[in-house]
Specification:
single chain; 144 residues; Nucleoside Triphosphate Pyrophosphohydrolase; 3 helices; 40% strand; globular
């Protein structure tokens, strides 16, 4: 079996009260990668870049926001043709600034968590939001 290089990516599931930020990839990104197009801000680590710095950098590059990272909410890996990708999704709070999207995305949406089922967001993404929302709420209860 051929060994594949590991790549680590960090994604932010950002909450503001009962709303969650979900991005829509640009038309070019959706076509190039044949993807559903929904996304959380974040991306891959650069060589020797600490995980939290990478997450803060990616969120700033893709949204113009600064956030407070609460805790990991979801971890999974994906073995792709060219690499083995490890993805860590973090529940985040207190977005500061105004959303300014990078060319990678063409729109952003603040969805009410309790109304996600009425959206076109994929089921797996809804489940990740629910899991991160539990982490987010637990954090808020313990830090009152």
């Amino acid at each position: 079996m051929k060994k594949k290089p590991y790549k680590i990516a960090a994604k932010a599931i950002i909450f503001q009260g009962s709303k969650v930020l979900i991005l829509r990839k640009s038309f070019a990104e959706r076509n190039a990668k044949d993807t559903h197009g929904w996304d959380f801000p974040g991306g891959g680590l650069e060589p020797e870049e600490p995980l939290m710095e990478a997450l803060a950098r990616e969120v700033m590059e893709e949204t113009g926001l600064q956030v407070k990272v609460i805790a990991p909410a979801y971890v999974y890996d994906e073995i792709q043709e060219e690499k083995h990708l490890l993805i860590i999704k973090f529940a985040c709070d207190k977005p500061q600034g105004s959303v300014v999207l990078s060319p990678e995305h063409d729109s952003h949406h603040w969805f009410c968590v309790d109304q996600l089922d009425q959206t076109r967001v994929p089921e797996w993404m809804k489940e990740e939001v629910r899991r991160a929302y539990r982490v987010y709420n637990e954090f808020r209860r313990s830090h009152r």
